[in-house]
Amino acid sequence: MTNPFSRHPSLVVRHALAIATEAHDGQVRRYTHEPFVSHPIAVANTVAPFHGDPLVLAAALLHDVVEDTPVTAADLAREMPSSVVRMVLSLTNPSTPADGERASRKRIDHDHVARAEPRAQTIKYADVLHNVQSIARHDPDFAPTYLAEKISLIGRLDRGHPVLRRRVWHCLVELTAGPF
């Protein structure tokens, strides 16, 4: 995958890429087994035309580190501006298995991101776009459940970039109609 962020003019973007690359080292994407860091890079690539702000791109690159790696919010706060950390935390699912079955956990997670600032919701749109395409292609048994959850989520997120929101919405509608 082409990675324009390794030579990005912003130090915060390059540093976010380095943190994401190190934090996700050894992790692979389910189904494709490509290095996991390809996902946050794809999310940042999708966000870039809508929000070229280096702080938003850094948050896009880091959006999964607190949720999916040993990196903590405190670790991130030592390395990144507070606005980046706030965006990442607003995109980090707060639910735990103790919160009950999947539907209950998703309600908690969706309520959390629905309160996120517009820039973070734009990142979430790009995250959903990348994930739904992969799941629809590689896991036809789980896709209907996952797509329904994401339709519910995107229906609640209305503060991010409207063009990207429409793009993810149209993708969800097309994938829902497709064969699994």
TrEMBL record:
Pfam families: HD_4. SUPFAM superfamilies: HD-domain/PDEase-like (SSF109604). Gene3D superfamilies: Hypothetical protein af1432. It comes from the Bacteria. InterPro entries: HD/PDEase_dom, MESH1. Residues 32-141 form the HD/PDEase domain. Signal peptide: none annotated. This is HD domain-containing protein. The lineage of its organism: Bacteria, Pseudomonadati, Pseudomonadota, Gammaproteobacteria, Chromatiales.
